[in-house]
Design the sequence.
């Protein structure tokens, strides 16, 4: 089977350095596991995660809201400009086998809603609270353990 | 100015008769105010609202997830099949000047997130709680009063 | 049956006054027949057709590439901003029961391809030549006669 | 610069073995040049091109019309289900730096129109004739030479 496993990381385009570090750690672990990182391709959480994955040899996909590749952060290897604005949120979710939500604002909330609607597992790290269906964890390592649990039997 | 005012009503495709009645009342008021009702075109809250608006002489737009018109509920006068699945949620929000969320599940949550992200007012009636930015009300009448307040100065 | 019949008019956003007149005549006939005019909402052929339909009491839907209503031409009564750029071409075609192509450039060519792909009748008026599947006519009146023929048995 | 060059190959989902071979050859050359192959992910021309690229060590992206990964052909390494039906044609074009059209039907015609509309080079191999703007060639090797010419100065 040549198809790769896609882990979506969703979160805001601007974030604190603390949140950036968490995203970076998640990205490192995604890369070390040889999974593909899928994200919205911009800054903040998306960049932190892409950086971590890229530095660990992973493929990083950025589904961009704009129409031009160059809007992607420097750690996106596969920049996919959609030109569809916020509708690209749907694509990020559909393109992911499992979604990890890190902190995040309204865009992240929309992606959480979409992911739960279409039945994708959502792992939450310091993200929107009290949403039934989110699998809340405390650390990047725990997030990856949950990913592994979801994948078991699928690979 | 020929352009009409579009009020989006979002909510689940299946709902209790109580929720259906609330959606129907909202729809009646939308129609009586000669606003256009925008919805996702399916059953439940979408149907209740479309019925109310249609019976009061209003135009009802249904932005459908599927590719065929006939999937629209019987009170949709303008059926717009998108063939884009859940991505039509983005279109419902974009096509609305103001959004009224009635109860709802994950799809509604995604639409709330999108609307708040792109800066559309969201009025909430028995919907997802504790989301900063939602303008929570208790009755259809209050929802319409809030719509009127948002429109003041825009018409 | 409350659902209306939707006639899509596709063509370039800029055009000669001659082409504009042809689009206007088509729009007039669409309005007189109480069909809904669906178009991309911008200038040129889209505006000519919307003007004709609007002046004859018809509903005119503009599925806009941008995210803002005000980009619609002044004869669009139902402005639906999609924020999806060229992907709105797909929506114009899907939202139409029958498509009339008037002159047009590459955007129109893409819509012709999409319409024929998904099995919608395409009537051509001075548009891209030698495309199998287009029902070529010479005048707005002939275009409307062809629409009527397609609708027979459907209404 | 970590971003890869994306070559889109567009063509019908069913084709003759002769056309399949041509697509396969194009795919081989894309892979040998270490470009990413972007396609619609299904059978026919898309599969031929993906096979060629994959067998030569290349990354193959399949932007699928459906909502499920498993609809991708076996040579797609990065399956991106869009759930957006024909609207994924827009994504294939946007995601490509340069498009090679091989034979093809109406879907391909729509992609050619979109690509020319948004200003992407389109190289044609036995595809729709007499469309101004297509750079017609006779062989896979010539197609790749044209790609190289377009890329010169961009890399």
Sequence:
């Amino acid at each position: 089977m040549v198809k790769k496993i896609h882990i979506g990381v969703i979160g805001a385009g601007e974030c604190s350095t603390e949140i950036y570090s968490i995203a970076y750690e998640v990205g490192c672990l995604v890369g070390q596991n040889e999974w593909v990182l899928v994200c919205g391709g911009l800054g903040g959480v998306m960049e932190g995660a892409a950086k971590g994955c890229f530095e660990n040899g992973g493929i990083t996909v950025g589904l961009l809201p704009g129409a031009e590749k160059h809007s992607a952060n420097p750690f996106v290897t596969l920049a996919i400009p959609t030109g569809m604005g916020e509708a690209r949120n749907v694509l990020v979710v559909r393109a992911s086998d499992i979604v990890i939500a890190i902190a995040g604002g309204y865009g992240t909330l929309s992606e959480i809603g979409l992911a739960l609607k279409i039945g994708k597992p959502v792992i939450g790290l310091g993200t929107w609270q009290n949403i039934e269906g989110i699998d809340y964890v405390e650390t990047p390592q725990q997030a990856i353990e949950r990913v592994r649990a979801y994948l078991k039997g699928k690979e």
About this structure: DSSP finds five helices and seven strands in chain B. Strands of chain B lie at 6-10, 36-39, 60-64, 78-81, 98-102, 122-125, 134-137. The CA atoms of residues 78 and 113 of chain B lie 26 Å apart.
